[in-house]
Design a protein that fits this description.
Blueprint (H helix, E strand, L loop, with lengths): L1 H4 L1 H69 L3 H20 L5 E3 H19 L3 E7 L7 E3 L4 H12 L6 E11 L6 E10 L14 H14 L4 E8 L2 E9 L4
Parallel strand pairs: 2-4
Antiparallel strand pairs: 1-3, 4-5, 5-7, 6-7
């Protein structure tokens, strides 16, 4: 008993209890910190997802307004072509509704949507526009942001094809590449169009709702891990290119 209640025994018991309490508090603090971090990250992801969804929804009325404007301009000029365009518009609307809630879709679906969109525009510009597709088959199931190409294709028509006197071309190229310095794999999406005017002020792809929307969506999904640039590679050829890290999500 003396040994137990003696100064040394009592001090040892108190110190031992105190140490156990400190360890318990540290463990509890660590647990709450981890739990808080998990909840914070979850809230951040939900916030980013909501912002991305909002940006995606901005594209729909913008796209629909421009497409309907194209159709309405054809009604008095050529009612038969306008009717064909309305039929193609129905196909595009079904695709939009099917993919409405999808933030990411396969390259195959993205290209199919672009083909339907260009089919509609070719009814109007059949004698002015030739379309070329170069899409690697091995990446068709790779996912990219929904409707990421449509604003670029629309700009290619608006600034490259419509103002031109001679017939023009649009090329859509999608392939897998490897960065030699980092050895990382990327998906390159490239939209190029011929142009008769190389003034960047007229063919400015850094402005406009669609282009701003693309950049914001890419920042929300990939942070700074993507490349998006557009420029004249020569006086007669304009190129918009997006490079996305493969398997980053």
């Amino acid at each position: 008993m003396k040994d137990f209640f003696g100064p040394n025994g009592m001090v040892g018991m108190v110190v031992g209890s105190f140490s156990s309490l400190i360890e318990l508090l540290v463990l509890m603090a660590l647990f709450f910190a981890i739990d808080y971090q998990k909840r914070y990250l979850k809230n951040q992801k939900e916030l980013i997802a909501a912002q991305l969804a909002s940006l995606q929804m901005q594209l729909h009325p913008h796209f629909l307004f421009n497409t309907l404007h194209s159709i309405s301009s054809m009604i008095d000029i050529d009612p038969r072509k306008a009717q064909k365009m309305l039929t193609k518009m129905g196909t595009l609307m079904r695709t939009l509704l099917e993919n409405d809630l999808e933030q990411m879709i396969t390259i195959e679906k993205e290209v199919d949507f672009i083909k339907d969109y260009l089919d509609l525009e070719q009814i109007r510009y059949a004698d002015k526009m030739a379309i070329h597709y170069q899409v690697s088959k091995d990446i068709l199931q790779t996912k990219v942001p929904n409707m990421i190409l449509q604003p670029l294709v629309e700009n290619a028509i608006k600034y490259g094809i419509v103002p031109a006197i001679k017939p023009g071309e649009i090329c859509i190229e999608i392939k897998r590449t490897k960065d030699e310095s980092s050895l990382k794999d990327y998906i390159d999406l490239k939209i190029s169009n011929t142009s008769e005017n190389n003034e960047s002020a007229i063919h400015d792809k850094g402005t406009g709702l669609g282009i701003q929307n693309i950049r914001k969506r890419l920042e929300g999904i990939y942070a700074d891990g993507f490349l998006f640039e557009s420029r004249f590679v020569n006086p007669k050829l304009y190129v918009a290119q997006i490079s996305l890290p493969l398997n980053s999500l």
